């Protein structure tokens, strides 16, 4: 796994060779069949998260890192309110404003004859949105960064390969952290990226905690206002900031990128989606209600297909079987065993989806689509599934919708290699980012 491959490259090969249940570590089983996935992750399951993975991020005392439901419950209660559908709807004017700003930069780039960065552009936008929701203000001005290449985004991306090694050898991280950053950078740049990301986050949390950054002024919900009111200890505030930033930036923006990239390879479908959007969105500057966008059949199918194909979190999200043991896909698994199944086993299952690696939104409009819905597991399933789903879905619909409504898009790097990624818990893109020209469509005024 250290030679340029991630676990999700190897799992399909190992399952082909050894069958649907394989032992991938001394005490860890991985399951390939969708039914097994649904046995492990569903609303009735309260199994603990596996410390080996979940305590390798340095954010043990945060929503994502808490191992048991009991520990996670109070934090989830605070976040659940802010990530509720109602609060996300209240927050929409802010999302609209940031999308408008983003689109104005895409248009400006085009006016200057320049393409835009499809990897870091949407990331800069989702970073801005989650930052405003967390801290009540745009801390990093990511959208203003040349080519959206902001240091915190670059550091976050560069840090991903560190996960593969730190998972197995956490002591390596502790040793490196005791060294000056420049030595760390020289020895292992990826780990230095992680340190840079963490120190930028730490700086913001310190400023908030000391009162140097005021949280009171925002007219929108502010996550850290609620966390501070609940008197969360400093280390936990910092862990939560890391968690929400990493959770809130890349998965959502990758989904947008996946949708755009695939539509650019199917111009006919792109034109149909744009016509569908235009019919309910006559003035490109005035957003339709989110619920109207969510009900457009073809657009909804594109969103689902982008969610299905974008890798999301491809690493198996492992759980510990309770003491009495459990049945998974008809097989007894003893207590204490660590079990997991990557979302890719379901989202890319050939048994569920014809040509599972192809972008075919029309599959979501067929008579069996209702059944397929339960197999769209990008956000996970069960009590530890994604807490940010309402925000993420609003962002994907609005960002993708606004871009398609406002621009004709042409990839300037149309090769398949554009979306090559490697599993480093989430996908890591080591190649030059995909780029596209965003040409304003008729009726779109410069913003
Ligand atoms: C398309 C976008 C997204 C995808 C595909 C996605 C996917 C996931 C998945 C699969 C999990 C389950 C992890 C596990 O089992 O341990 C998860 C958890 C989580 N996500 Fe997301 N996510 C997305 C967007 C977001 C956003 C925008 C936020 C907001 C900050 C967010 C916050 C969280 C949190 C806090 C958890 C931890 C929940 C828990 O452990 O109880 N996610 N996400």
Q: TL;DR of this structure?
A:
The protein has 447 residues and is of the alpha+beta class.
Q: If you had to describe this structure to a student in words, what would you say it looks like?
A:
By secondary structure, the protein is α+β, with helices and mostly antiparallel strands. The protein has a single domain, classed as Orthogonal Bundle (Cytochrome p450). It is built from 18 helices and twelve strands. A five-stranded mixed sheet has the order 1-2-8-5-3. The chain is globular, with a radius of gyration of 22 Å. The model has no long low-confidence stretch (mean pLDDT 93). The site of protoporphyrin IX containing FE has 26 residues, from α4, α12 and α18. Heme binds at residue 386. This is P450 monooxygenase. Keywords: Heme, Iron, Metal-binding, Monooxygenase, Oxidoreductase. One of its GO terms (molecular function) is iron ion binding.
- How big a fraction of the residues is strand? 5-15%
Rough shape?
Answer: globular
How many domains? The number is: 1
Q: What name goes with the CATH superfamily?
A: Cytochrome P450
For the largest beta-sheet, the strand count, sense and barrel status come to:
5 strands, mixed
Biggest sheet, spatial arrangement of strands:
1-2-8-5-3
**What is the CATH first-level class name?**
Mainly Alpha
Counting DSSP H or I runs of 4 or more residues, the number of helices is: 18
As residue ranges, the low-confidence spans are none
Backbone structural class: alpha+beta
Number of strands: 12
Rg on CA atoms, Å: 22 Å
N→C terminal distance: 47 Å
Q: What is the N-to-C succession of helices and strands?
A: HEEHEHHHEHHHHHHHHHHEEEEHHHEEEE
Q: What hetero molecules are bound to the protein chains?
A: protoporphyrin IX containing FE
As a percent range, the share of helical residues equals: 40-55%
């Amino acid at each position: 796994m250290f030679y340029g491959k991630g676990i999700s490259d190897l799992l399909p090969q190992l399952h082909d060779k050894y069958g649907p249940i394989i032992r991938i570590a001394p005490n860890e089983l991985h399951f390939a069949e969708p039914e097994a996935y649904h046995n492990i992750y569903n609303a009735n399951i309260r199994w603990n998260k596996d410390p080996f993975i979940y305590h390798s991020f340095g954010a043990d005392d945060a929503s994502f890192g808490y191992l048991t439901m009991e520990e996670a419950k109070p934090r989830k209660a605070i976040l659940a309110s802010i990530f509720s559908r109602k609060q996300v709807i209240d927050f929409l004017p802010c999302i609209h404003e940031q999308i408008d700003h983003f689109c104005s930069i895409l248009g400006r780039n085009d006016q200057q004859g320049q393409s835009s960065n499809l990897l870091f552009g949407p990331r800069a936008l989702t970073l801005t949105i989650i930052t405003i929701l967390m801290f009540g203000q745009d801390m990093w001005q990511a959208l203003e960064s040349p080519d959206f290449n902001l240091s915190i985004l670059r550091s976050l991306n560069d840090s991903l390969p560190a996960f593969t090694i730190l998972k197995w050898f956490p002591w390596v991280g502790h040793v490196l952290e005791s060294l000056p950053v420049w030595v760390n950078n020289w020895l292992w740049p990826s780990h230095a990226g992680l340190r840079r990301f963490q120190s930028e986050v730490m700086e913001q949390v310190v400023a908030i905690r000391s009162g140097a950054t005021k949280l009171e002024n925002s007219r929108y919900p502010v996550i850290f206002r609620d966390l501070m009111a609940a008197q969360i200890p400093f280390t936990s505030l910092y862990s939560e900031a890391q968690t929400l930033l990493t959770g809130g930036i890349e998965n959502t923006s990758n989904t947008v990128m996946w949708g755009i990239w695939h539509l650019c390879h199917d111009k006919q479908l792109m034109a149909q989606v744009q016509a569908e959007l235009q019919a309910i969105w006559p003035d490109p500057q005035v957003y339709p209600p989110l619920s109207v966008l969510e009900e457009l059949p073809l657009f909804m199918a594109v969103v689902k297909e982008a969610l299905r194909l974008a890798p999301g979190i491809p690493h198996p999200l492992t759980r510990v079987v309770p003491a009495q043991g459990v049945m998974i896909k008809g097989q007894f698994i003893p207590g204490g065993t660590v079990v997991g199944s990557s979302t890719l086993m379901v989202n890319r299952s050939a048994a569920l989806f014809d040509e599972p690696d192809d972008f075919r939104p029309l599959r979501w409009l067929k008579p069996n689509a209702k059944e397929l819905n339960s197999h769209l597991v990008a956000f996970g399933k069960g009590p530890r599934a994604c807490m940010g789903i309402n925000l993420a879905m609003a962002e994907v619909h609005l960002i993708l919708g606004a871009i398609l409504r406002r621009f004709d898009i042409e990839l300037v790097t149309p090769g398949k290699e554009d979306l090559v990624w490697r599993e480093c818990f989430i996908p890591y893109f080591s190649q030059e980012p995909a780029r596209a020209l965003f040409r304003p469509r008729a009726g779109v005024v410069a913003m």
